[in-house]
Amino acid sequence: MSEIDNKMNSAISHYEKELNSLRTSRANPSMLDNILVDAYGSKTPVNQLGNISIQDASTITIQIWDTTLTKSIENAITESNLGINPQTDGQLIRLPIPKLSEERRKEIIKIASEFAENSKVTIRNIRRDFIEIEKNQKKNSNLSEDELKRKINEIQKITDSNIEKIDKILEAKKNDIMKV
Question: Which of 62, 97, 128, 144 has its CA 20 to 30 A from that of 6?
Answer without folding.
Answer: 144
